[in-house]
Protein: Flagellar motor protein MotA
Organism: Pseudoduganella rivuli
Amino acid sequence: MTETLSFGWLHDGVSLLLTPALFALLAACAIAIAEAGIACGERFYGLSRLAANRDIGQVQAIARRRLERADLLSRIPPMLGLMATIIPLGPGLAALGQGDPAKLASAVTVAFDATVLGLVAGIGGLVIGKLRRRWYEELLESLEAEELAA
């Protein structure tokens, strides 16, 4: 009896995190799409502008910021997806114990959808980060080679 009273608040508090986690996952997917667009513009226009400036410090600063964004995008959404996967499974399993498989089915659907959203956004961030890292390394190498040649 005391366990139910002392941990009921914990279950209620954790359940409140599901909606913000799902909204954060949707936002992360939108950010991944926006970052993909920014990366395309960066590849076809932005990098050549940076190369024309020949300022290695500026390139390093911009690269650091953009790579940090991509790194965060590749790490945080999968964690949010896991969180939004686990949260509905507790009530779903409890409903199964009470003979309500429909509630379990609903919880499992939400859980799997959250997992997919987290992975999609994380994969987007990973691909963007890897491409950007290569682009900026090539740009910095060419700028340093030009600087040594001069």
